[in-house]
Specification:
Blueprint (H helix, E strand, L loop, with lengths): L1 H16 L9 H7 L4 E4 L9 E7 L3 E7 L3 H26 L13 E5 L3 E7 L3 E8 L2 E8 L3 H10 L3
Antiparallel strand pairs: 1-2, 2-3, 3-7, 4-5, 5-6, 6-7
Length: about 160
């Protein structure tokens, strides 16, 4: 009986947690999700991209979607952008607390979710919320006024980013 309970528990955990993979959104699926927003094709300004779109909206909403056949390029871009946001956050903290000269990543309010083929990071800065998501061959870099964070989170979650 113990083995049966243990087996059922393992199956429940596996089913609810999955295998830690996500599926990237195709450019067409992204545009379908973004149909309520104004978007611009910015592929010409990003030479390595197979597809790239930028959304701009109310409350300083900005969403950049990039698909690239080279997964390493996309992953590097994701990490470069997270470093940029981390630097912005550290600069904001330095302005708030002038007595402290160094800040660690633990000082920055953030949430990070990782899996086999994805990483999603959310950063709560003083006036802006940033959400950066990398899945396989795509990256989405987004920001919005902090008071409207839930709007951006809901939009990104609708695409599983």
């Amino acid at each position: 009986m113990k083995y049966l309970k243990a087996l059922i528990l393992i199956l429940v955990v596996f089913i609810t947690c999955g295998c830690g993979k996500r599926t990237s959104v195709s450019p067409q699926d992204f545009l379908n999700k973004a149909k309520d927003y104004n978007y611009t094709d910015v592929k010409n300004s990003i030479d390595f991209a197979d597809a790239a779109y930028k959304i701009e909206g109310d409350n300083n909403l900005s969403v950049l979607y990039i698909k690239c056949s080279n997964k390493n390029t996309i992953k590097r871009m994701y990490y470069d952008e997270t470093n940029n946001v981390t630097k912005k956050a550290a600069a904001e903290l330095a302005l708030e607390d002038k007595s402290k000269t160094e800040f660690s990543l633990d000082d920055i309010e953030k949430s990070i979710t990782k899996g086999d083929n994805y990483t999603i990071a959310g950063y709560d800065l003083k006036s802006t919320y940033y959400r950066l998501s990398w899945i396989d061959d795509t990256v989405i870099i987004a920001s919005i006024d902090i008071k409207h964070k839930s709007d951006l989170v809901n939009f990104m979650k609708s695409m599983n980013y």
